[in-house]
Design a protein that fits this description.
heterodimer; A: 195 residues; 2 helices; rod-shaped; B: 154 residues; alpha+beta; 7-stranded mixed beta sheet; 4-stranded antiparallel beta sheet; 47% strand
């Protein structure tokens, strides 16, 4: 059997335009396949479990030096490292109900509320088992998210109002709340301008 | 000159395919990881209801509390000081709730599921018993609710 001397197969190589056209065609096929496959990778349906959490069942007592109920909110505020404040959750305390004076002939009013306070870092979990994509995603992000998101010490529980008020103390740190703690806010309305 | 037929897919195409697929997969990992952790917070008001369930009959029947149509579990939330004819109880009912969640660098409020109405509390009893009053409407943060149980007279 005689083989002719093999000639160098140049194929379509040598032409940059055709080379790029081939790569573009391959890329088109691969990306099209991923458009179909990606939703499978990204379908993290399933339970979202709490990964880290702060939970407290606290009793909040609001004492007001006022003759009528005030518009007050129990607010959880995040204070960032740069000092920027953001409201995480704001609960309207009961308004428009008759209040009992704490003492006879007193202008001071008192209201007691019980709250469950939760702050959770949630982690989406794929059911039933994690796939390699999840693990690589964890490797890429875990430390970053942990460092960026989970800072319970930055959260404060405080009483806010559209009125110009002052509360004493001005806040309690959420991370330092006792589970069955009792916390008092003494609220005074400052005269003059509304905020 | 013999023209050898060139294979449809070249080695260069295979390497390019593998590298591109890997790059896209890593991108998907990055994307899925970036939405994998998030923060939520919740302030839920707990409404404390306490009182006495009593009867003039020989002994109390087995009873459960029900509120707003949902049942408070069979005793786990109930602190009894039980005597044959009376039981003191204390319930913590879930009141209004506000949720916040963290997305793209800021906190947002989700108040659609906040419940701010009043809670209807009643006692579920075995057949042949009835409670007086049949239910309480609870709207304050602290309420007392006493129930008197009796057997229905034929």
């Amino acid at each position: 059997m005689t083989n002719p001397a093999p000639t160098k197969n140049t194929g379509t190589r040598g032409s940059l335009g055709i080379f790029l056209a081939r790569k573009a065609a391959v890329a088109f096929v691969i990306i099209s396949a991923y458009v179909i496959i990606a939703p499978v990778f990204l379908s993290f349906r399933g339970s979202a479990n709490s990964y880290e959490q702060v939970i407290a069942n606290v009793t909040v007592r609001v004492l007001c030096e006022s003759t009528q109920p005030l518009e007050l909110y129990l607010t959880m505020v995040e204070v960032r490292e740069d000092g920027a404040e953001q409201t995480a959750a704001r609960f309207p305390l009961r308004r428009g109900e008759p209040l009992e004076p704490t003492r006879e002939q007193s202008t001071q009013y008192e209201e007691t509320f019980h709250f469950r306070v939760r702050l959770d870092l949630n982690r989406r979990r794929r059911k039933p088992d994690e796939v390699l994509t999840d693990r690589v995603a964890d490797l890429m992000h875990k430390r970053r998210f942990y460092a960026r998101l989970w800072h319970p010490e930055r959260y404060r529980l405080q009483v806010t109002s559209p009125l110009n008020i002052k509360s004493e103390p001005s806040y309690y740190r959420v991370s330092e709340l006792d589970f069955w703690g009792e916390y008092d806010f003494a609220v005074t309305v400052l005269e003059g301008t509304q905020q | 000159m013999q023209h050898r037929k060139r294979s449809f897919i070249t080695k260069s195409d295979l390497i390019f395919t593998a590298l591109l697929a890997l790059a896209i997969w890593l991108g998907i990992c990055w994307h899925s990881g970036s939405t994998k952790y998030w923060l939520t917070c919740e302030l839920r008001e707990e409404i404390r209801v306490s009182g006495v369930v009593r009867t003039t009959e020989a002994s109390l029947p087995e009873f459960h509390f029900a509120y707003s149509g949902d049942r408070v579990g069979g005793g786990s939330d109930i602190y009894y000081e039980k005597r044959p004819s009376a039981a003191e109880y204390e319930l913590m009912l879930p009141g209004a709730t506000v949720h916040g969640y963290y997305r793209s660098g800021e906190w947002r409020q989700r108040e659609d599921n906040a419940f701010n109405g009043s809670i209807n509390l009643s006692v579920e009893l075995p057949a042949g018993w009835y409670a007086e009053p049949s239910n309480y409407t609870i709207s304050g943060p602290r309420s007392d609710a006493d129930f008197d149980l009796s057997r229905e007279t034929q």
